[in-house]
Amino acid sequence: MEARALARPAASFLANLSAHGTTVTRRSHQTFSRTKRALNIAPHPAFTTSPAGNSNTIIFNPPAAEPSVHHTPQKFLPKSDPRRKHADLAALFASPYAAPGTVPSSSSTTTTTTTADADAGLPPALDFPSRNNPRYHLTREDVAEIRRLRAEDPARWSVNRLAKKFDCSEVFITICTPAPRDHKENLERKLEAVKRRWGAIRTKARVERAKRKDMLFRGEL
């Protein structure tokens, strides 16, 4: 009984082989070593040999760039294009404030544009303090008053409050009157008390931030 039960699967397997043909396992080309050898194509001779016989060759292959109006040949310009009337194409774009459709003359590069005409097509100026436009409106009496207030009560007259009072930058306040030593030590003690309340995640984040800042200043990022 047991032999008959074992013979039935074998008989069915042989019947399937005879019905669908004999299956033969063959080793094809799709193996790692053969595929690697097939794809190992030698470089083009232009990259390995030099026409002058020298092995040191510079291959100049610049990327495609956007075409410029300065490079348009005269042949492809329409007859109504104002660029046909100018031999020097740079003179056409010399004045950025010229009205659209007008052609500046050759003497436009020598004439100066007035401030009103130059600012006519520009957006309104931002009312924002900048280092490029410094102001020298503080006098010696103002500087003496800043130093007196800072030395009298540095906690009340902070750098930000003095800058707002005298309408100047915070950098000027720090240069004009540094904070007293005891005030700096008090701020350091407060900072250390705050740091002691930090957890492991915040402490690690602060350390990583300081590292990234140093790497940024060294040009490593």
Automatic annotation (TrEMBL):
GO cellular component, one term: mitochondrial large ribosomal subunit
Pfam families associated with the record: MRP-L20 (PF12824)
Location of region: Disordered: 100-134
UniProt biased composition (Low complexity): 100-125
InterPro entries per record: Ribosomal_mL58 (IPR024388)
GO molecular function, one term: structural constituent of ribosome
Descriptive protein name: 60S ribosomal protein L20
Record lineage: Eukaryota, Fungi, Dikarya, Ascomycota, Pezizomycotina
